């Protein structure tokens, strides 16, 4: 396969090929490692992120024989693996949010200017938001942050979490309600868009 056609191939095709040619999986890493690393840093901080990202791609590589090849986009699958692995770091995540709460600024936010970051941060008090996020149940926080910081659609977040889309909607709705209560008069629209962005 030529380099150009390799780069254009969908993820399922790349994963299928990697079953015979393991080195082909490197393309999946190149496509998604930067985004997943940024997402994990936002949630756990830089120290834990390196390990979680490495573990995510190692687990994905080992599980590639079980990947559903009817799904051309591996992004939700990879975010799901990362989210599961982050479950071992809940204390680190809450500690990271508490640091943000005390400092009032997100140490990794400034280099990233994507719309999802703007959506969750614009106009909000970083301290209050961090406190509110730390207080959310893990399932609610996972759904909310996969959409807001991971920039996944509701359907992709459902795939990543292995739950129904309605469950993701419900968790995000509840998370937003809790954020509203926690943040008082601050405009809740900034936290996560109500409409499914990519569906």
UniProtKB/TrEMBL annotation:
GO biological process: DNA-templated transcription initiation
CDD domains referenced in this protein's UniProt entry, alphabetically: Sigma70_r4
InterPro entries: RNA_pol_sigma-70-like, RNA_pol_sigma-70_dom, RNA_pol_sigma70_r2, RNA_pol_sigma70_r4_t2, RNA_pol_sigma_r2, RNA_pol_sigma_r3/r4-like, WH-like_DNA-bd_sf
Superkingdom field: Bacteria
Pfam entry (one): Sigma70_r2
GO terms of molecular function: DNA binding; sigma factor activity
RNA polymerase sigma-70 region domain sequence ranges: 29-95
Keyword Transcription recorded: yes
Protein family (similarity comment): Belongs to the sigma-70 factor family. ECF subfamily.
Annotated protein name in UniProt: RNA polymerase sigma-70 factor (ECF subfamily)
Originating species: Actinomadura coerulea
């Amino acid at each position: 396969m030529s380099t150009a056609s390799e780069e254009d191939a969908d993820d399922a095709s790349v994963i299928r090929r990697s079953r015979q040619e393991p080195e082909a999986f490197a393309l999946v890493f190149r496509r998604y490692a930067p985004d997943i690393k940024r997402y994990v840093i936002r949630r756990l901080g830089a120290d834990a992120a390196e390990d979680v990202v490495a573990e995510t791609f190692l687990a994905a590589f080992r599980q590639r024989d079980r990947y559903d090849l009817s799904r051309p986009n591996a992004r939700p699958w990879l975010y799901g693996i990362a989210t599961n692995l982050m479950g071992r770091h809940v204390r680190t995540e809450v500690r990271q949010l508490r640091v943000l709460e005390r400092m009032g600024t997100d140490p990794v936010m400034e280099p990233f200017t994507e719309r999802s970051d703007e959506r969750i941060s614009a106009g909000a008090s970083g301290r209050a938001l961090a406190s509110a996020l730390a207080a959310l149940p893990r399932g609610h926080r996972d759904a909310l942050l996969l959409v807001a910081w991971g920039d996944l659609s509701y359907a992709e977040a459902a795939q990543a979490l292995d739950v129904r889309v309605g469950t993701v909607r419900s968790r995000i709705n509840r998370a937003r309600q809790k954020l509203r209560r926690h943040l008082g008069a601050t405009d809740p629209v900034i936290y996560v868009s109500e409409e499914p962005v990519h569906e």
